[in-house]
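hi!! sorry for the late reply, been swamped w classes. u asked for the two structures so here they r. pasted raw, havent cleaned anything up. first the sequence of the first protein and right below it the tokens
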Amino acid sequence: MMWKYENSIITEATPEAIWKLYNSVDKWKKWDGSILEVKINGPFEEGVTGNLTLLGQEPLLFTLTEVKENKLFTNTTILEQLSIKMDFRHEIEILGIQTKVTHSVILSGPNAEMIGNQIGPMITQGIPNSMSNLNQLARGDIS
């Protein structure tokens, strides 16, 4: 079973400018207002774990399961009590002189569809705004 949400933007920001905001974990709070704190236990590469605390939530353990410089990264959280795997995927694609950025949330597991329908809107509601912030930061419009 699977549940998926996806949002994309087109920007003039370069893949490298977007990537700098992705691989600097301490900057995640600048573009994602739902993050209270994030810590990573090593370099920004596959297999490294970290903790992410969202406003009003307990810290969540995540693992960087996919990291391809200037192209994509996925951070994965396992919610064992719900038998759910949550993948937060961040993709960068070159479209001529522009850049397409896509953020996805993919829930998988036996209850993924039911849980996704219940908590998905809460998890994903801030993604369009965080992508707008990411875009503005990458273009240098805000700092």
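now the second protein. again sequence first, tokens right under
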Amino acid sequence: MLTTKEMDKALKYQKRSKIAFKIIMLALLALWIPVAIDKLTDFETFKSGIYNQPFSDSLGNVLIYTLPVLECATIICLIYEGWRKVGLILSTMLMTAFTGYVGIALLGAWKKLPCGCGSVISGMSWERHFLFNLFFLFLSLSGLYLWRKLRSGDAGSEAAKGGSAKRHIKQYSLTSKF
């Protein structure tokens, strides 16, 4: 059985984790909402920016329609608690792709380096853009980690209070309605 001091420490850690998770959710929404709105409200500029990228027009045609949809889906999933894991996975996938693209560009893969980004990102150098993307990729991954940690923390907190985590899970599954 845990001492009172150990229980207090565990509860403080869980509280800090919940606060950190909420901050990450807000930061990711602060990224994705303006990015998606920018693409949707100025679609022609976004479209021409995609066509200026150093990949085929057929890939450009796919990206023109899938990126705004994926970004809007990311926003919706991050907002709704039951879908946050999906939102965090989408955010991680998008940021991995964007960071990889900028990283390849920085390595000199293409002679022409147009940036089709809007909002705040458009004024950044490629190096700053890369660091910006790495930061939000880190936030997305941290959000996934905290999501998993907080989800598994419910049963563990019962054990920390001296009860059985297994009994807590069994009791929850027997009393909850699906």
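hope this helps!! also noticed smth abt the second:
The two ends are 33 Å apart (CA to CA).
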